[in-house]
DNA sequence: TTAAATCCTAGTATTCCGATAGGATTAAAA
DNA sequence: TTTTAATCCTATCGGAATACTAGGATTTAA
């Protein structure tokens, strides 16, 4: 299951991307319009800024804005920052690989190959969709 | 991330499917060979039996056996029993649907359509793989 | 009658998630 | 210069879920 953190983060990015012009958007406005706890959203925005998706302006009239155009922000990148690995098992993760404690040999693990297939199909979707794509609705 | 419960369940089913003949297989043997806590595995086997994948024989010489041939057990069925929904959001789940509290309208939610794509691609893999497929390694 | 297996219910330790608290800092506007 | 409005930052916390564990009841073969 997708965490609320990721879901809210994607909604916030979408909200910002849908605004006209490049004026900074306030957390308060996003939280209100998307029904998200403002304090929780604050910490999510911070992650997105530190990851390079968002820039911020402090003080009155400040807020957040996209640092890249929406069609340059792949869903898979955002997911990896907010959700972590795309794969369903650490042992099939490309960016967060870890051995499984219980497996003596990944090559003979029957679950392993299945989860590689799932990963590749999920990746295909997340690589091919950008922020620009998902706000087309 | 896949829960240990699901992973262990799949490994246990694979282990049983790989045995010659239809002799019941003991939890103890599975736990030992697959490095799984025996007590934990007990509860998982119980779920799999109640879901109809396994039959059991009690008492000395008892154990678990497949109730259907391995090529008749789709991965998606096992996943739904052990892991729950395939979808990453309740609002795009076919078998475990729930509204999202924060969405006034699913039709205009940008995350919704993305997660439908992910779901469909994951489903494709899990529908097309059976227990027989994943033990071919 | 004993040994070996499943069956079943409860409990528990730990981790993670979602959210909250409380201020520090910055900048525009009055 | 003061006020107001925004982000920044760290810490904490309750509840739920996960991953087991305990302990016995029941069943069956030898």
Features:
DNA-binding, two-stranded antiparallel ribbon, 6 helices, mainly alpha, elongated, homodimer, 137 residues
Give a description of the structure.
The structure is a homodimer of 137-residue chains. Helix content of chain A is 49%, strand content 6%. Chain A is mainly alpha-helical and 137 residues long. Chain A has a two-stranded antiparallel sheet with strand order 1-2. In chain A, strand 1 (54-57) and strand 2 (63-66) form a beta hairpin. The model of chain A has no long low-confidence stretch (mean pLDDT 96). Chain A binds chain B through residues 1-2, 7, 10-11, 14, 34-36, 75, 85, 88-90, 101-104, 107-111, 113-115, 117-118, 121-122, 124-126, 129, 134-135, 137, and chain B through 1-2, 7, 10-11, 14, 34-36, 75, 84-85, 88-90, 101-104, 107-111, 113-115, 117-118, 121-122, 124-126, 129, 134-135, 137. The first copy, chain A, binds a DNA duplex (30 and 30 nucleotides) through residues 3-5, 24, 26-28, 37, 39-40, 42-43, 45-46, 49, 56-64.
Nutshell version of this structure?
Chain A is mainly alpha-helical. Helices cover 49% and strands 6% of the residues of chain A. The interface between A and B is large, with 37 and 38 residues.
* Total DSSP helices of chain A: 6
Largest sheet of chain A: 2 strands, antiparallel
What's the end-to-end separation of chain A, in Å? 23 Å
Shape of chain A: elongated
C-alpha Rg of chain A (nearest Å): 17 Å
Let me know the average pLDDT of chain A.
Answer: 96
The quaternary structure here is: homodimer
- Please give the order of strands in the largest beta sheet of chain A: 1-2
Number of beta strands of chain A: 2
Residues in β-strands, percent of chain A: 5-15%
SSE string of chain A, helices as H and strands as E:
HHHEEHHH
Q: Bin the helical content of chain A.
A: 40-55%
Low-confidence stretches of chain A: none
Q: Tell me the structural class of chain A.
A: mainly alpha
State the largest interface.
A-B, 37 and 38 residues
């Amino acid at each position: 299951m997708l965490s609320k953190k990721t879901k809210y983060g994607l909604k916030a990015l979408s909200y910002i991307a849908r605004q006209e012009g490049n004026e900074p958007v306030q957390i308060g406005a996003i939280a209100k319009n998307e029904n998200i706890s403002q304090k929780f959203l604050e910490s999510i925005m911070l992650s997105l800024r530190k990851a390079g998706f968002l820039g911020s302006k402090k003080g009155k009239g400040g807020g957040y804005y996209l640092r890249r155009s929406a069609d340059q922000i792949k869903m898979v990148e955002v997911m990896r920052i907010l959700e972590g690995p795309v794969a369903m098992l650490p042992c099939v993760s490309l960016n967060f690989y870890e051995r499984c404690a219980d497996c003596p040999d990944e090559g003979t693990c029957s679950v392993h190959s299945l989860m590689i297939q799932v990963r590749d199909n999920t990746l295909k979707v997340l690589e091919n969709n950008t922020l620009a794509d998902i706000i087309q609705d």
